Here is the input.
Amino acid sequence: MVEWLAGDEISSLLTSSFYVVPQQQIIFHINYIAIIAALKECERIIEEYCEKVGIANNGSECVKQLREKLIEKARSVDAKYPDTAELTIDKKGRPTLHKRGPKKKSNTVIWLEKILKLRMKKRNLLDVFCSSHFYCGWGNEFGPISGDNPKIKDPVERYLLTSFAYATGLGPTQTVLHVRSSASAHMLSWVNQRHITPEMLDKAREKLINLIAQFKLTKSWGDGTSVAADGTMQELREQNLIAEFHFRYRKRGGIAYHHVSDNYILLFSTFMSCGVWEAVEIIEGLLKNSSDVQPDIIHGDTQSQSTIVFALAYLLGFRLMPRIRNWSDLKLFKPAKTEKYEHIDCLFTDTIDWYLIEKHWQDMMQVVLSINEGKMSSSKLLRTLGNYSRKNRLYQAFQELGYVIRTLFLLEYISDVELRETITAQTNKVEAYNALSDWCAFGSNTLVASNDEMEKAVKYNDILANAVILQNVSDMTEIIAELIDEGHNITKEDMSYLCPYWTSHLKRFGDMVMDFNNVPKSVERSRSRMLW
Here is the structure.
């Protein structure tokens, strides 16, 4: 990265005589002018961007705000330490966090879960899948990659059957054997290759997301302001070129990485090889999410964080709040060497280099603006910075800013037991979604047979899982409304313990028929139900 240049420096550069210098020098000057132009564009939009995401619009002000914030937070945690029962620091300076007892479900919640499961209508999984398209039209997002109108017979039926084949892992051959349809296995395979892309699948999923978010019941689980991200192992065939051995799962395959909002809705998924650091995709999922649910808080596990990710999330206007294993092994940084604390001073092992952050603030902002404008991928940047030499100044600046943001988070994390419980609850939701995803992919233990279809297979599965969520939310809403009409007192708090991932009432196996006339009418009616 280069330093931002003053106006007279730009003028002198633009009036240089390029024709009298060697060719290499010409290329250098041309590239340099391109950099200058990019920097001037950044200067034009930086103030508006910083106001939008709520950060300072220059390096000195940014450093000032963060220093004051870190001083205030550290002093506050130190002052509250004697009253923080869930945090203890022994004589050797080793901190320990203590859990509170688990919240017990009330008798009303236990009764509500029992009655809901008894009254949930038995449904065929294929019917649920088809009815989800009927209500939001997600299958209409598919079509020839060329942009022409589809020339095949009954295109929507073909698109839904193809999606079901790959979402469940049955594949085209087994799907045509089990589902009564005129389509052939070759037709389904051809549709997958010629009429459906990952981008189309993303748009189809967003239609389902927007419909599910309209239900009042989902508001009892969360307001959509936070999302949890986690990866789950997907087995691949031994001969697959992308399959790698995962040291933690002790088998070969890849990782399906999911972003699940606090109201249980799947927002984004992608596929990555086992050797890729999971944190590189945690921000990219939020940037690519264009649905009505727009979270700005990110939860994850230890694999989803680093100082670079903390810094990048902050500059992009997100709050990274992960559940970190062995957090006490991480370094906490003081705002200044002169700062001393009565109770928590032993937790700090170093001091922030504020000069480095201020000096390279504009360089970091140029990178962030490039990501925000879609000129650069956050995952590509994180991969690059992760491999950078520690001598690289841009890497050091991001890391130093990350130290500040992570220290602020850790101070909040150790002093607020309710925050820790919230993070645990949200990360448990994405782990529960992984189980639903596996249940939907009942056709095969391996993801797909080919070398280049893993990303699409994961996204197909997203649509089926969200279709299950939609039908469950609709059916649960109807039953709760009936119970309220019968005189039962069911509160929003009672509903918050429910989960739309139930599958015991759904039929996956047997002879299936794709019947567009057998569409449940409950979704349209229950969507507008007022439950409280």
Observations:
- The two ends are 55 Å apart (CA to CA).
